[in-house]
Amino acid sequence: MLFGKGKEMVKQNLPPGFQDMLSFNLIEALLGRRSRRFFMGAEIPDGAFQYTSSHQSLPLTDLEKMLIVSACGGNTSWHHMIYRGARYAPHLSNYAGAAGGRVFPSAAGFQTSQTFFTDDEGVYMLDMRDAPAFSERSNEGSLDVNDFVDNTRKKVRKLQDGRLKIPSEVPFVEAHNTWAFNKPSTLVVIPVGDLSQHVLLALCYMLQNGLVLFDDINRCAIPGIEHYKDMVDIHNVWNLTFVEQWSLSELSVELGASCFAGTLMLQAMGLGGWMLNGVDPFAVLGASGDLDAPGLGFRYHEDERWPYPNPTGLTGVMEGYCPPHYPNMCAAVEAVCKRKFGPGGPFNADTPGPWKESPKVRKAAQVHDERFKECVALQAQYIYDTFGKFPGTVPTMFLIMYLQAHHLDTDFYDRLYKPGAYLKTHATHMERWHK
User: Fold this and answer.
1) SS3 145
2) pLDDT along the chain (435 residues), means of 10
3) Which CATH number is 7-434's, of 3.40.109.10, 3.40.630.30, 3.90.1150.200, 3.40.1570.10?
4) What pTM was estimated for this model as a whole?
5) 270, 285, 305, 351: least surrounded by Cβ within 10 Å?
C-alpha cells in the first residue's frame, strides 16, 4: 500500500518552508541540535517544568512525515562498494548486502535494517533495504530532493491501522518519557536491525579473510571445521561472543546514525523532537506478552536458556535469516548469497551502478562457491543447535533507538527558557509550513 499523495501533487503544494529547509546551514543543524520534547497539546503536570500547552495538538502533514522518514531511511543512489582486500586481490571485496545506498552508513555495506514508523493513522514500514538507486546523480553529484522524497513514498507499506499500540506507561516506557512518547499527533520512527543476517554476513566476511569461529562459551572448536583446513587456517579464530557482540555494536551504530540523520532534519524543518532509547524494545517488536501492548507484532519465542524473549521476524515484512523463517541455517546462507549475487544484488553483473563500466566492476567480486557456503552454514548451524536460536548470545531482531518528531510549542520555551532555546526555523515553522 502506498502512502500519501503523488509527486506532482506534492510539487504543486510545496510550502515556502521547503525552500528554507533546502538552504539551511549544516553547521547550524549540528550546533543547533537539541532534544526539544514539548509539543503542541502536551502537558507536564508538576515540578519545575509544570506547563499545559494552550495549543491543540497538530499532526505532521504528509510532506513533513515523508521528509523525516526519508532523512532516516531514504535511498541515496548506488553504494560505492569496498574496493580491495589484499588477501584475495584482484577480486573486488564482496561483503555488501545491497547495491543501493541509504542516508546512513552500514558496516561493510551489510545493510540489514529496515525503517518502521507510526503516527495517528497507522503503522508503516519503509521497504528500502534492497531498493535500487531511484536516480543517477547529476554531474555535480547532487540528487533531486523531490524525487528522493517521492521514492520514499512509493516504498512505504501500511501494516496496521492506528497508532502503534504501546502504552505510554511503565514498564513499556521509561518513567521520564511517559508524558511525551508516542502521543497523539507525534511521528515515531523505529529502525529495526536483523542481527541474524548481520552475523551471517560477518561469518562470510571472516571466512573471506581467513577466520573461523571458536565457541568460547563451551570452550570448543566448531565440530567438523577441520574438514575445511585446506581452505582456511582453522586455528585462526575469533571467539563467538566477540563476533556477536561486535555485530551488535556495528548494527547499533547503523540504527543510531539513522535516527541522528533525522534529528538534523528536525532543525532544518523547524520541528521539535528527539532521539531516544527509553522504550522497551521487546514490547515494541511484539514480545511483551501483553495483549494491550502488541507492538509491531513480530513473531517471538522463549526458552529457559535465554534471559529475554527472542523476536525473529514479521512474516512477509521482515523475516530473520534463521529458523523458523528458514528450515535451517543452510537455507538461510543460501538466501544471503542470493541477496548478494542474485538479480538486483551488489555483485550481479546485470545490476546497474555508478561506474563507467558497472558490469565489469560488479562481476569482479568472487562468488561464494558451494564449499564456502557449506563452511559458513556449518558454523551458523552449530550456533543454532547449541543455543536454540541464531545468533546465540544476542537477539535475532534488534532495536535500540527511536526518533520522535512533532510540532514544537514555542510558548513553553518562551515561558521557561532564556532566548535561544530554539532556532529561527522553529520560530517561523507555522508561518512557513502551514500558512
Assistant:
1) helix
2) 45 87 96 98 98 98 98 97 90 95 96 98 98 95 96 98 96 97 98 98 97 98 97 97 98 98 98 97 96 96 95 98 98 98 97 97 96 98 98 98 98 98 98 95
3) 3.40.109.10
4) 0.95
5) 305
